[in-house]
Amino acid sequence: MKNEKILGLEKNAFFTGLTSFFTDTSTKMVYSIMPLFLLSIGASKTTIALIEGIAESTASLLKVISGYWSDKIGKNKPFMIIGYGITAIITPFYALAKIPVQILFFRFFERIGKGLRTAPRDSLISASVQKNEAGKTFGFQKAMDNSGAIIGPLIAFLLLYFFPLNYRNIFLFATIPAIFGVLTIVIFIKEVKSEKNGETNKISLKQLPKKFYFFLIIIFVFTLGNSADALLLVKTTETGIDKSYIPFMYMIFNTISVLIAIPIGKLSDKIGREKLITLGFLVYAITYYFFGKFNNIQIFIFLFMLYGFYSALTDSSQKAMISDIISKDLKGTGYGLYHAILGITLLPASLIAGLLYDKINSSAPFYFGSIMALIATLLMVLFTIWNKKNNKINIT
Asked: Taking every pair of C-alpha atoms in the chain, what is the biggest distance, in angstroms?
């Protein structure tokens, strides 16, 4: 592939980011009002958490399969077209839902789309760029994700403001950017991997380095306390804020994240991913602790800003670190395992958080998340020390 760049980025990286922008505009229009919609049709807090957990977890095995298979056949683009296409097809069906179990059904199939596309997408991005640009590139991807996550809730807020509690229209409007996302892949994104013979290109999980599995353990511990963001929005409604402003609160978090995602990505290229991930986990622990301690909208506005800072610190840095650790021919498999751990762990995380919310009080799930984040922070410190020692041994 020719080394053509747009805004200093490889073409694939740019257009994959544009795809994410369109798709996140769509999905975050839906996500920012979904807790309110579910409450309006009779869902409890535990039900809301479980719907997110089940939808993410049951589709997460596809992230391993799609990543592994994209490595096997040497192609990423077909998985992206199908995955983003499923999201575009499912989105308008939310408007037909009358009971929570129907939302679970639609969310499950929409998450299948994400399961198919996510690992091959990250693999394509990683294969399209040089190692010393991975942080910047994944930072751009994060920025585009969150740009859509700003525009989406903003549109949802405006629709709710002018058409109060008409959630179903938002689901229909959200279909339009999702279609643009699919068209961007089809027209502009080029395949990077060459075709491979499945018989000669044998892939084994034993080929992945030990430090990658150590890192996955840390991700598991952290994610166990990182339940669906829907509970943050539910908690915010308890401050007495007008419900039409809930998408606006979610937009604040994404705005901060998009503003600093690329600078954070570049910084990770310079000083290393571990430091930023460790700091991100610590910021998360502080943020969740204060979400549990207070019930004040002014404080929550600041906490959503802090939550955006955490998101920018961790997401692109984690993906860039995996790109550093794993060889080119195993990137799809590695990203598949990473995303599968995130998705599968969300089910127990959401169940724990929902039960703590309903059975104890609204602060309990956030205190639990804070404790798990602190444990993950300590594990990241150990990972950094262990990694440095191994690097010294390899050099000598």
From this structure: 67
User: Burial letters for 196-208: b for 16+ Cβ neighbours within 10 Å, e otherwise?
Assistant: eeeeeeebeeeeb
For 97, left (φ over 0), alpha (ψ -120 to 50), or beta? Answer: beta
Q: What is the pLDDT of residues 84-110, one digit of tens each?
A: 999 999 999 999 999 999 999 999 999
Spell out the domain ranges in the chain: 10-193+203-395
Secondary structure class of 6 (helix, strand, coil): strand
Contacts of residue 394, Cβ cutoff 8 Å, sequence gap at least 6: none
The CATH class given to the 10-193+203-395 domain equals mainly alpha
Q: What is the pTM of this model?
A: 0.80
Closest CA to 23 of 151, 189, 167, 168: 151
Task: Report d(CA 35, CA 13) in Å as an integer.
Answer: 32
Q: Where are the alpha helices (DSSP H) in the chain?
A: 11-40, 45-73, 77-90, 100-128, 134-162, 167-173, 175-188, 210-224, 230-237, 246-271, 273-293, 297-325, 331-355, 364-395
Distance in angstroms between the alpha carbons of the first and the last residue of the chain: 37
Mean pLDDT of 117-141: 89
**CA dihedral in degrees (153, 158, 162, 165; nearest 10)?**
0
Q: Are the CB atoms for 94 and 171 separated by under 8 Å?
A: yes
The pLDDT tens digits of the residues spanning 379-392 come to 999 999 988 887 66
Residue-wise pLDDT for 360-385, tens only, equals 999 999 999 999 999 999 999 999 99
Helix or strand or coil: residue 94? Answer: helix
- CA atoms within 13 A of residue 26's CA, in its CB half-sphere: 27
**Separation in Å, CA 348 to CA 5, 27, 369:** 42, 23, 12
**pLDDT (0 to 100) of residue 193:** 59
Q: Tokens 């991975």 label which residue?
A: 134
